[in-house]
């Protein structure tokens, strides 16, 4: 796939994820994928790759943020108990 295809597919993936979040409609991701697949399997594959990567990174970020938050709360709780 070309760099421009990947960039365009990633831009669309970002916009669709944002729209799906705002609308509360996870099916939107699949619906856009179906539209792309009917027109260009190359574009659809690039789009779905970007979707998977972006959603995986979102989950990874949430996991890290939650882990840090729990550690900070535990440290604060220990400090309060000692002081």
Commentary on this structure:
There is one protein chain. This protein has 83 residues and is mostly helical. The chain has one domain (3-82). The chain is 92% helix and 0% strand. It has helices at residues 3-23, 27-39, 41-82. The longest helix has 42 residues, at 41-82.
Helix and strand pattern:
HHH
- Shape call: elongated
Query: What's the number of structural domains?
Result: 1
Pairing-aware structural class of the strands and helices? mainly alpha
Give the beta-strand count.
0
SS element count, helices? 3
Termini separation comes to 60 Å
Strand content: under 5%
Approximately how much helix is present in the residues?
over 70%
Give a short account of the largest sheet.
Answer: none
Uncertain runs: none
Mean pLDDT: 96
The value of Rg in angstroms is: 19 Å
Quick structural summary:
With 83 residues, the chain is mainly α. 92% of the residues lie in helices and 0% in strands. The model has no long low-confidence stretch (mean pLDDT 96).
Features:
single chain, 83 residues, mainly alpha, 3 helices, 0% strand, elongated
């Amino acid at each position: 796939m070309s760099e421009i295809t990947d960039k365009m597919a990633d831009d669309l993936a970002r916009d669709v994820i944002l729209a799906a979040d705002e609308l509360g409609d996870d099916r939107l991701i699949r619906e856009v994928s179906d539209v792309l697949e009917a027109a260009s399997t190359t574009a659809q594959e690039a789009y779905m790759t970007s979707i998977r990567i972006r959603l995986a990174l979102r989950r990874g970020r949430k996991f890290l943020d939650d882990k840090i938050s729990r550690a900070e709360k535990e440290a604060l709780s220990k400090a309060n108990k000692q002081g």
